[in-house]
Amino acid sequence: MIKVGIIGGAGYTAGELIRILLNHPKAEITYAQSTSQAGLPVSSIHTDLVGETELSFVAEADYEVDVLFLCMGHGRSRSFVEAIPADFKGKIIDLSNDYRLKETADGFVYGLPELNKKRIQKADKIANPGCFATAIQVALLPLAEAGKLKEVHVHAITGSTGAGQACSGTTHFSWRNNNASVYKSFSHQHLGEIGESLVQLQPAFADAVNFVPMRGNYPRGILASVYLETELEENAAQELYEHYYAAHPFTHVVRNSPDVKQVVNTNRALVSVKKHGTKLHIISVIDNLLKGASGQAVQNMNLLFGLDEAEGLRLKPVAF
């Protein structure tokens, strides 16, 4: 069994990670650490786990594990990693944005399996991608590999859990409910990792990725609506996408426009491509907490330890 330690265990991504790993046939949670909740039952914070686990949060990390999942806030993982004892032999999967960019990666491999599966399998340290970044890259990677990318336009909407568990003026119910808003237009922090991945596949790509993020009035899920000019016909684009994702068990190319409910509670990404005049319109949907965070982190763990990529991740969508 893979022995797992979870650092920063009280947030949304940690809760989803615990829910998945409790039912993973080849992994065992050794502990979940939380400075703020130490001593409390895990199920008192992650109340969906009542009756599922007797784990309580611990205050300190234990390094006698095979893998550490870092579920701390952005900016905190780096100081934690720098303090890990030199004799630690386990692997690290970081869910923050601290190691996603090449100039600050410090040996971490960017953990998008649809892009870097072979590199992930040989790695010891993984930088898990961002949720918006995952949805947008899944929409664009086949075009980049084919050298077909031009200036890209993206509108994408995310559920409130994408902002994390801490309350703010734009996450509490009375503001978010029956509301929608735009934020960080053309400046979202995930643009950096998206750009690096696209250039990895299409080195000459130097056009803009124009990204307008939106907040939705629902808890979880991302829908990315992407378009660009292309000479590709629709059938050729469909074949391009189907070929690219043929070896990737969680990304599926569909004929009809996908919606968020098809992927909530799963590690799946659904992608559709349609031609409208000279423009190719790509829609991708993911669950921001699973394929956009914790599910993808477990997918990466499976790859790191030579398991079936989908082990423990055959989750069912919530239809209603």
From TrEMBL:
Annotated GO CC locations: cytoplasm
Pfam name, any one: Semialdhyde_dh
Domain Semialdehyde dehydrogenase NAD-binding, first and last residues per copy: 3-123
Keywords: Amino-acid biosynthesis, Arginine biosynthesis, Cytoplasm, NADP, Oxidoreductase
Reaction catalysis annotation: N-acetyl-L-glutamate 5-semialdehyde + phosphate + NADP(+) = N-acetyl-L-glutamyl 5-phosphate + NADPH + H(+)
Pathway terms, separated by semicolons: Amino-acid biosynthesis; L-arginine biosynthesis; N(2)-acetyl-L-ornithine from L-glutamate: step 3/4
Compartments in which it is found: Cytoplasm
Highest rank taxon of the organism: Bacteria
Gene Ontology process terms (BP): L-arginine biosynthetic process
GO MF terms, alphabetically ordered: N-acetyl-gamma-glutamyl-phosphate reductase activity; NAD binding; NADP+ binding
Summary of the function given for this chain in its UniProt record: Catalyzes the NADPH-dependent reduction of N-acetyl-5-glutamyl phosphate to yield N-acetyl-L-glutamate 5-semialdehyde.
Record's protein name: N-acetyl-gamma-glutamyl-phosphate reductase
